[in-house]
Write a structure and sequence with these properties.
Order of helices and strands: EHEEHHHHHHHHEHEEEHH
CATH superfamily: DD-peptidase/beta-lactamase superfamily
Strand content: 5-15%
Shape: globular
Oligomer: single chain
Number of domains: 1
Number of strands: 7
CATH architecture: 3-Layer(aba) Sandwich
Number of helices: 12
Largest sheet: 7 strands, mixed
Distance between the termini: 28 Å
Radius of gyration: 19 Å
Strand order of the largest sheet: 1-3-2-7-6-5-4
Length: 303
């Protein structure tokens, strides 16, 4: 059973939108995009209160920096369990990982969470133990017993270039062990964070504060990597409150966003794409957010 109620009318709107964008010069789009789109009927949503639609929601995609959202929540969970120690350096790394998508900060936090480190190839028992440790985040995610999380993989660092040594070996000969997420898993995770279902409110708020982004054009111009331009936030009205984490690399352009329009109720949208052409398409994600947001606003106005 899905964690939200599926609406046939919204599903048809989503299908028509994907078909339209595919016909506008994006052949194969329907096979290379996944979407979860959920609206909430009340200003203060609670788990299992959403209504929405999806496309390829269970298909696994390379998440790029979207995986950092999972690592951030893991940090707060580890802190609550006294598994790691609070420090100014940890807080700085957490901020840089989410707000600026720093790969260096991500590397530091993964080492901290799992007790591992990068380096030359390991062998025998050392290699076996290293792999067991690196999978601690996956084990934590599996402990939720959510059906959406059964096949996801969140155990790899993110790179400016590529992994080397034991990190490269850990990816597997054909990159079969690289990070993998579905929009369905990401949507449930983000919803649970934003509704304080994953963490106590005081811990959730620390991550929400970092996920919060400005749609102000002048502020965006000061930061070319603002995770708004070319992503979902660009397609929303300036007065919208938005919390988001984007991911972009040579073959993926992804975003996961929760927003509240002026006078409206919350909405959640997760979009993953694959392929070099879509990775360089800075129009598509803003356009999807704009169209889906207008559908909900028009629906609310007629009620």
């Amino acid at each position: 059973m899905a964690f939200y109620k599926k609406d046939p009318k919204l599903a048809l709107c989503l299908k028509d939108l994907i078909n339209r964008f595919e016909k506008e010069g994006r052949p194969g789009l329907s096979n290379n995009i996944a979407i979860n789109w959920i609206q909430y009927k009340t200003p203060k949503p609670f788990p299992e209160s959403g209504v929405g639609a999806s496309w390829n929601e269970q298909k696994l995609f390379y998440p790029a920096s979207i995986v950092k959202l999972f690592y951030a929540v893991a940090v707060e969970h580890w802190l609550r369990k006294d598994l790691i120690i609070e420090s100014n350096e940890l807080r700085k790394a957490l901020y840089e990982m989410i707000q600026n998508s720093s790969n260096d900060a991500t590397s530091f936090l993964i080492d901290l969470l799992t007790g591992t480190s990068s380096g030359p190839v390991l062998k025998n028992e050392l290699w076996k133990n290293w792999k067991l440790q690196r999978n601690l985040i996956n084990n934590w995610i599996r402990s939720f017993n959510w059906p959406e999380m059964k096949t996801v993989n969140c155990c790899q660092k993110t790179w400016e270039d590529s992994p080397y040594g034991r990190e490269k070996k850990f990816y597997g000969c054909n990159n079969e062990n690289r990070n993998a997420l579905s929009t369905e898993a990401t949507a449930r995770f983000l919803e649970s964070l934003m509704t304080d279902d994953l963490l106590p409110p005081i811990s959730s708020q620390k991550i929400k504060n970092i996920l919060s982004r400005s749609l102000n054009l002048n502020e965006r111009k000061l930061n070319p990597e603002n995770q708004i331009d070319g992503f979902l936030g660009e397609g929303l009205p300036n007065e919208t409150q938005i919390w988001s984490k984007a991911g972009w690399m040579s073959e993926a352009r992804n975003d996961a966003a929760w927003w509240v329009s002026k006078g409206g109720n919350p909405m959640l949208l997760v979009v993953f794409t694959s392929g070099k052409k879509l990775a360089n398409d800075t129009f598509l994600l803003p356009a999807i957010a704009n169209e889906l947001n207008k559908i909900i606003i028009n629906e609310e106005d007629t009620q």
